[in-house]
Model the fold of this input.
Amino acid sequence: MSQPVEKTGKRKGDGQDNRYRLRLFLADNEPNSRLARQNLDRFCETYLKDSYEVEVVDVFQDFRSAIEYRVLVTPALMLVEPRGEQMLFGNLSDTGKLLKTLGIKGARV
Amino acid sequence: MKKPVSTTKGVPATQELSKVKTYITGLDEVLRGGLPEGRTTLVSGGPGCGKSILGLEFVYRGALNGEPGVFITFEESAAAVRNNARTLGWDLEKLEKEGRIFLMEGRISPRAILSGDFDLMGLMAIIEGQAKAMGARRVVLDSLDMILRLYNNFAREREELYSIYEWLYGKCLTSLITVKIIGESGVSTQYSFLEFMSDCVILLDQRMLDQVATRRLRVVKYRGSGFGRNEYPCAITGDGFHLIPLSGMTLNTAALGRKFSTGYPAMDKILGGGFSYGSSIIISGTTGTGKTTLACSTMLAACQRGERVLYINFEESEQAMLENMLSPGIDLRPMVKAGLFRIIPGMPESMGAEEHLLRFMLIIDEFKPNHLVVDAISSTRRMGSTQAAYEYLVRLGGSCKEKGISCFYINQTESSHDMYDISGMGVSSFTDAIILLRFFDTGDEVRRQLLVLKSRGTKHSSRYYEMTITDQGFKLKPFRIVPGTFRSGPSEEKGGAL
Done:
């Protein structure tokens, strides 16, 4: 699916060590979607530093990606690396869940 | 799509509600034209009552009629849906390839992890994008309750449902949502608010009647439209969902058709000229009195005139029946071969009355018989309750009458004296003729008696006749008892011919 994907949220660290590749599915500017984006930004800055890459997909802009990855629930975060497309639904307000899912140990919430 | 969403709720009072045909047999009739266009219809019911099939058929028949549709299944896998469709002879894959149906599995992986609140905007984006891309106006969300369970919070579930309804309404999509209801009352306690939100509510129900499963459909509500308010028997047979329209059923309104011969001049004479096309005839008697012989010889004569006969046999196999009829010299085999005589064997227990009825009605529509024989109506009781069997007979008879098909109901009775029993499950009121067969015990032998108990609109004989079954059909002569003695005169076997 090579639809025009909104990549405003995409960032890359300086190093080549992008151990965390994430894909965030949002629905326009819905409250939960806005919150998820904020939560993810904060999370990445705090815990992942320069070793991550985020691709943001707006399901209303790119419904075919939503079909492809079966994203009926938004916001949805797909952990492409390292968890092999594990899905995490919700506005990511539960940081502990995110840490656990990404396998980051020892961090303080 | 011209759809003024001017009023806050419900239908603009001045405007006739436009409808979308379901193309499902009998359902559009009950819905007075179809589902409300651009609105949401709720289909609820317990497990296994046919909600998914009803929804799928709405999309499938729409697609066949040039109205593409979107079907999202939240419980079954897409492969299972395609398989179910295949058993009904529907080729979904073909329609999917042609872009007339979009089928998507909406199950959420049990591995999914939740973190914070969420909504179903992804679902809406998919519906919107896909509907626009393929020009679809029909949307089915099958078992929507499954995905809502993710919330694990009823207030939140309810809120999300409201927004889905609102959103669908805004997009003017004609949608059908199915949810499971648990509980016997038929009203879902948890999702009952959905009934208030929906413009149309259809309740499906499967219940056991004397150990036989029967399906029912009821339209609970239809905002801005009239609808059939009864509970309608329905069945999933052959190629999909069928409703049996029974409202239009009228009894004995059609005038009887012209007469036809039984093939026996003596019998025709007793009947006052034969039977009538389009009439209902009961042949009643205890076992072995010659009911099947009488019916089959009359039907053989019909086939010889080139007429078609459908014989519904609940009693014995086709082979056994054809062979048994050879003994009185009635050879139906050439007629079977010529396609004029068709035997449908059926175990009454194997299906509910509705399924039987539908199956036979479909065969009748296809085969277009001139005559129908039901052997024996007494065994239809085993389809469920006596009430179900009675309704079954009334509907079958009514439908045949409308089509001008004559119906022979063979009725095996327990005793030859109980008149209610003879007339057969109380259906005598809609029958036009009743033939009674019985044994008469003369003291040293048993002889068969035939009596025309009733023959509407004819000057039929009202005396007993002696019926002798020979190897060339049967013979009739007036039944006489030698005066002065209780003993009768010599029977046909010893004496001469009629």
Q: What stands out?
A: DSSP finds 15 helices and 23 strands in chain B. The CA atoms of residues 89 and 430 of chain B lie 37 Å apart. Chain B has two domains: 19-243, 259-478. The interface with chain A takes residues 72, 104-106, 108-109, 111-126, 128-130, 147, 150 of chain B (CB under 8 Å).
